[in-house]
Amino acid sequence: MLLRSCAIWRENEREVTVMKQYILDTRMGTIQEEPIQGKMGWDGTENQQENTCLILAATLKEFEASEILHPCKKELLHSLNCEKYCKVEFFHNCIQGIIRSPLTDGHRQKPFLFGFLLYQNMLWFVSDDAKLPNMVEQIREELYEGFSIQDFLLAFFNHLIEKDMSFLQKIEDGLERMEEKVLDRKEAHLNEAIMQNRRELSQRHGYYPGICICDSGHHDAEIWRQGNRPDAVFGKSV
Question: Has this prediction a pTM greater than 0.90?
Answer without folding.
Answer: no
